[in-house]
């Protein structure tokens, strides 16, 4: 520190060593923080690795037939995901078909149309909807929606039954007294309930993307005489495209893994059921929830394999979603 | 920004609108323009189209066609409304305006549909719970001595309430310290390692909750021989809640302004002191919200609990030994029964669960929902008062008790620039 007071010749001026003498508390903090990160990392990898190891036993036993067998009889080595995996996708896609317009409309309403004072309330209402327990959705779906929606199912299958997925075997549209049981416990009803559960997450991703639409472009469009809808069509939707796609994918990821509401509504079948409106559906998560209790060690391993396939599917969907959302965000930070 | 006529000052009037008649006696009184976008004819069109649509639909449904059902009525009424509204607006507007109005009604209808569905689902659970909830024994007894045929005046859900509280409590003991520490780590010790951890955490949010339950079932119960217990259920809930809490807190801590951190470092504070006295207090409300919302997600989760906690009908206050039921699991098992009383009890559980979630949400709303550094009006007032006090204290120390006033008033407007001693 003597350099401050005494003048020093230029040639003796050596670079100071800039070693930051660290506080022991700081060093402890860094070690602790890294430790917490490591614990989380280990836990999370353990889940994946353990699933993989346990599943490999069943996968080695079943081989390629795991993806082609629809039945689930692991103790006689006849099991596969050919029925449950497409069933899961069908429920997820039905759910997204309902959730996408609902989420898009609500996100647009909150960012564009709602009075400013109401926005925070609306946002927390949508967040609340994401936190409503799935068993409550299941109760509503089973006790209220199911008896009331079979009329709609009957109507769709009567008039649109020529489209293969809307066809219902065993239904007689000419007989008004035919029982509604053929329309209950279907992929369609499960999809509607799951749609309500995944709409909030899709909605909040879309809302954040829409709110980031650049105000300059927005006001420019207004100044050129665009109506509110014109602004939405030419500014908000193009800028929020990434958010729409990402939010939808994220919702799809959620829908694929949903368990309890699906278990409460569907009646499981172990053949692939392509008819949305017809009784009988299945999903991987419902399979696990219904079969874990009576499973032998090998059956457990088979369930692990099914769980792993579900996890891999949601993982891929989620990664696509987050990369789409992240890419759409990167460009919008430029203006401020 | 639209200038209303009263904002244009008289001296500027000549330049803005040259044809304004100058003020004075005898000049025609200026009428004030309304800048509101709401016109009477729009309201008439809206109300008229609504009434016409309702009337038309009830005629179609009641007289013309053999339709019935509330759902069909609503859909047909909305379509009729959009068509009639388009016709009414087209009388005095052009195509762009018609499209804008139709889009507006559609967006409003979708948002209304979603919010109505939400309120209906929540309300349905609470309403169907009304049969079981008024009986005080519902909260004070368990189901160990009550069969499915016994009336609602016997038996209750004490065991499930205790189970839920204990399980969520243990999960919070695990996830809150670990989750917050990990979120701090992700933001304060950046690098390749932190990025990797963030990627893994993000991947784990995709983990279906039933698979989390399956993992704990296979490790803790089958491999380690822990037995089905409340503790195993808490572990499953922790695996599920941890990524949620980490991600939410990560986002909140990332929003802490860098200038605050740099100011702390510039004052000579170390990293640990900066985190403890600047980063965490600044993001406190957001972190609390993250934890509460994570709790709300975890408390209603059924599928991990279904595999790990076992089903008990009696009170078991020890989470480490023996099966222990929680509220969502009790709901799930009770409504599978064909007996009316059991279903009523199931709805009672669901209503109780819903009430808990609502309570947590209200709490989150009261505490948080603001970004870091954004203060409520009361906090702002308190902070201003604190810095005024500081100013007085410093002033009296620096210049003595001299009440000349000149110096004390000088820095008045900058009072808020003096940093408060502590947050909140």
Automatic annotation (TrEMBL), chain A:
Gene Ontology CC, one term: plasma membrane
Compartments in which it is found: Cell membrane
Any one GO BP annotation for this protein: phosphate ion transport
Entry keywords, A to Z: Cell membrane, Membrane, Phosphate transport, Transmembrane, Transmembrane helix, Transport
Membrane topology category: Multi-pass membrane protein
Entry's Gene Ontology molecular function annotations: phosphate transmembrane transporter activity
Main localization of the protein described in the UniProt heading: membrane
ABC transmembrane type-1 domain boundaries: 85-321
Transport listed as a keyword: yes
Signal peptide feature range: none
Function (record text): Part of the binding-protein-dependent transport system for phosphate; probably responsible for the translocation of the substrate across the membrane.
Similarity remark: Belongs to the binding-protein-dependent transport system permease family. CysTW subfamily.
Name of this protein: Phosphate transport system permease protein
Organism: Streptomyces nymphaeiformis
From TrEMBL, chain B:
Region named Disordered: 1-31, 372-424
Statement: the UniProt record of this protein carries the keyword Transmembrane: yes
Record CDD domains: TM_PBP2
Residues of the ABC transmembrane type-1 domain: 161-364
Pfam families: BPD_transp_1
GO cellular component terms, A-Z: plasma membrane
Source organism superkingdom: Bacteria
Main subcellular location of this protein, as a coarse class: membrane
InterPro entries: MetI-like, MetI-like_sf, Phosphate_PstA, Phosphate_transprt_permease
Subcellular location: Cell membrane
Membrane topology annotation: Multi-pass membrane protein
Keyword Zinc-finger: no
Keyword set, alphabetical order: Cell membrane, Membrane, Phosphate transport, Transmembrane, Transmembrane helix, Transport
GO MF annotation: an example: phosphate transmembrane transporter activity
Transmembrane annotation, as ranges: 43-64, 70-91, 103-127, 168-186, 206-225, 231-253, 347-368
Free-text function comment from the UniProt entry: Part of the binding-protein-dependent transport system for phosphate; probably responsible for the translocation of the substrate across the membrane.
Family affiliation: Belongs to the binding-protein-dependent transport system permease family. CysTW subfamily.
PANTHER family: PHOSPHATE TRANSPORT SYSTEM PERMEASE PROTEIN PSTA (PTHR42922)
Matching NCBIfam families: 3a0107s02c (TIGR00974)
Protein name, entry field: Phosphate transport system permease protein PstA
Species assigned in the record: Streptomyces nymphaeiformis
Lineage, top ranks: Bacteria, Bacillati, Actinomycetota, Actinomycetes, Kitasatosporales
């Amino acid at each position: 520190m003597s350099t401050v007071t005494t003048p020093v010749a230029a040639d003796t001026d050596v670079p100071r060593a800039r070693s930051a003498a660290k506080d022991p508390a700081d060093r402890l903090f860094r070690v602790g923080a890294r430790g917490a990160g490591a614990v989380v990392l280990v836990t999370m990898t353990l889940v994946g690795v353990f699933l993989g190891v346990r599943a490999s036993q069943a996968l080695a036993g079943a081989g390629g037939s795991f993806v082609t067998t629809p039945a689930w009889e692991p103790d006689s080595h006849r099991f596969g995901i050919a029925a449950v995996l497409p069933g899961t996708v069908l429920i997820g896609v039905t759910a997204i078909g309902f959730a996408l317009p609902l989420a898009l409309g609500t996100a647009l309403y909150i960012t564009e149309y709602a009075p400013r004072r109401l926005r925070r309330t609306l946002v927390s209402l949508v967040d609340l909807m994401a936190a409503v327990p799935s068993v409550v959705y299941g109760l509503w779906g089973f006790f209220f929606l199911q008896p009331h929606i079979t009329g709609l199912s009957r109507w769709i299958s009567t008039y649109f039954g020529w489209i293969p997925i809307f066809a219902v075997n065993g239904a007689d549209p000419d007989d008004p007294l035919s029982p509604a049981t053929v329309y209950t416990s279907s992929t369609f009803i499960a999809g509607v309930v799951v749609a309500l559960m995944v709409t909030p997450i899709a909605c909040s991703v879309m809302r954040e993307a829409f709110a980031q639409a650049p105000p300059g472009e927005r006001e420019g469009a207004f100044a050129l005489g665009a109506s509110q809808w014109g602004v939405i069509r030419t500014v908000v939707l193009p800028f929020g495209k990434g958010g729409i796609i990402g939010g939808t994918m994220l919702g799809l990821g959620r829908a694929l893994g949903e368990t309890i509401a699906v278990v409460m509504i569907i009646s499981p079948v172990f053949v692939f059921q392509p008819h949305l409106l017809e009784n009988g559906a299945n999903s991987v998560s419902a399979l696990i929830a219904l079969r874990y209790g009576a499973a032998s060690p090998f059956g457990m391993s088979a369930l692990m394999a099914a769980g792993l396939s579900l996890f891999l599917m949601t993982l891929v969907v989620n990664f696509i979603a987050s990369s789409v959302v992240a890419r759409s965000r990167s460009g919008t930070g430029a203006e401020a | 920004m639209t200038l209303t006529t009263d904002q244009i000052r008289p001296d500027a009037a000549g330049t803005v609108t040259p044809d304004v008649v100058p003020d004075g006696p005898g000049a025609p009184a200026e009428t004030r323009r309304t800048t509101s976008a709401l016109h009477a004819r729009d309201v008439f069109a809206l109300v008229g189209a609504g009434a016409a649509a309702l009337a038309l639909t009830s005629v179609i449904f009641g007289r013309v066609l053999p339709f019935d059902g509330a759902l069909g009525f609503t859909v047909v009424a909305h379509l009729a409304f959009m068509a009639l509204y388009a016709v009414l607006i087209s009388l005095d507007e052009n195509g762009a305006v018609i499209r804008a109005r139709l889009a507006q009604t559609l967006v409003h209808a979708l948002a209304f549909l979603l919010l109505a569905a939400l309120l209906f689902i929540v309300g349905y659970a609470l309403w169907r719970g009304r049969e079981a909830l008024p009986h005080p024994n519902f909260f004070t007894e368990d189901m160990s001595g009550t069969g499915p045929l016994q009336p609602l005046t016997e038996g209750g859900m004490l065991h499930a309430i205790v189970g839920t509280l204990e399980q969520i409590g243990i999960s919070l003991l695990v996830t809150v310290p670990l989750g917050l520490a990990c979120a701090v780590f992700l933001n304060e010790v950046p690098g390749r390692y932190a990025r990797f951890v963030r990627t893994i955490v993000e991947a784990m949010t995709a983990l279906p909750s039933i698979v989390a339950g399956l993992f704990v079932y296979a490790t803790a119960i089958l491999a380690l021989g822990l037995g089905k217990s409340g503790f195993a259920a808490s572990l499953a809930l922790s695996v599920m809640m941890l990524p949620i809490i980490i991600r939410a807190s990560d986002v909140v801590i990332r929003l802490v302004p860098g200038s605050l951190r740099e100011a702390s470092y510039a004052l000579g504070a170390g990293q640990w002191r900066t985190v403890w006295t600047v980063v965490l207090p600044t993001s406190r409300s957001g972190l609390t919200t993250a934890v509460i919302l994570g709790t709300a997600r975890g408390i209603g989760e059924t599928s991990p609990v279904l595999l790990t906690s076992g089903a008990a009908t009696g009170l078991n206050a020890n989470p480490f030994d023996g099966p222990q039921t929680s509220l969502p699991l009790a709901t799930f098992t009770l409504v599978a029964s064909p007996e009316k009383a059991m279903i009523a009890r199931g709805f009672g559980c669901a209503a109780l669960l819903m009430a808990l979630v609502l309570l947590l949400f209200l709490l989150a709303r009261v505490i948080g929902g603001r970004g870091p550094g954004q203060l409520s009006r009361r906090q702002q007032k308190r902070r201003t008062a604190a810095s005024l006090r500081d100013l007085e204290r410093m002033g009296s120390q620096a210049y003595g008790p001299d009440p000349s006033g000149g110096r004390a008033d000088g820095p008045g407007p900058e009072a808020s620039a003096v940093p408060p001693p502590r947050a909140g």
